[in-house]
Design brief:
Bound molecules: adenosine monophosphate, magnesium ion
Strand content: 15-25%
Structural class: alpha/beta
Helix content: 40-55%
Shape: globular
Radius of gyration: 16 Å
CATH superfamily: P-loop containing nucleotide triphosphate hydrolases
Order of helices and strands: EHEHHHEEEHEHHEH
Largest sheet: 5 strands, parallel
Oligomer: single chain
Number of helices: 8
CATH topology: Rossmann fold
CATH class: Alpha Beta
CATH architecture: 3-Layer(aba) Sandwich
Number of strands: 7
Strand order of the largest sheet: 2-3-1-6-7
Number of domains: 1
Distance between the termini: 26 Å
């Protein structure tokens, strides 16, 4: 099964991936941006992943997306793809999974995770390792809305199922509660497709 996981940058996707990796070590987790970055480093001398959306000409960016999708589609077994339904470029929204790319990647499921905007802003402020865009609540919410539409469009092109995990109005009762809920949701999807139920881990 191929699952695409999308959520706004800086909202905690990588943390969810790490949670899933620990519980289901045989699932391959691949970051779409990493694959694009590897290709971009060689071709354009890009130094940092957050430069890609600013420094690569759009035609080349399109080719990188397509090459990354082809590479990921060739991976055997269960794969979870950490990526974006849309990328904010110059104040507008560029499709992360345009038809051509979605059709190549061909995910079985697209899982969209949505949060209260103020929670995303707080998480971004707490991550000094990345050059995240600084945005208002309104801008964050607009991007989440755009992502819904883009996810539906991508699902249509790829004939995939869209799942929406909406954490708005559901603040965490303890740290990493959202990570666990979203992680378990994806684990259930994958085990369901394998026809297995969850085995209790020894920990
Ligand atoms: P991330 O680490 O998930 O924030 O991704 C870093 C960068 O990778 C993004 O800012 C984009 O430039 C690029 N990226 C990731 N997924 C896609 C995609 N599906 N289409 C285009 N660019 C992408
Ligand atoms: Mg990430």
């Amino acid at each position: 099964m191929r699952v695409v996981l999308v959520a706004l940058p800086g909202s905690g996707k990588t943390t969810i991936m790490n949670y899933i990796r620990e519980k289901l070590p045989d699932v391959k987790i691949v970051n779409f941006g990493d694959i694009m970055f590897e290709l971009a480093k060689k071709k354009f001398g890009i130094q940092h992943r957050d430069e890609m959306r600013k420094r690569i000409p759009v035609e080349e960016y399109r080719r990188l997306q397509e090459e990354a999708a082809e590479y990921i589609a060739s991976m055997p077994g269960d794969v979870i793809v950490d990526t974006h339904a849309s990328i904010k470029i110059g104040g507008g929204y560029y499709p992360g999974l345009p038809d051509r790319v979605a059709a190549k990647l061909k995910p079985d499921a697209i899982v969209l995770i949505e949060y209260d905007p103020q929670e995303i802003i707080k998480r971004r402020a707490g991550d000094p390792t990345r050059a995240r865009d600084v945005e208002s609540e309104e801008e964050v919410e607009m991007h989440q809305m755009a992502n819904r539409y883009y996810a539906f469009a991508a699902a249509s092109a790829a004939e995939s199922v869209v799942h929406i995990i909406n954490f708005r109005g559901r603040p965490q009762k303890r740290p990493f509660e959202h990570t666990e809920i979203a992680g378990e949701y994806v684990i259930k999807l994958i085990l369901g497709a394998r026809g297995q139920t969850r085995q209790t881990s020894p920990s």
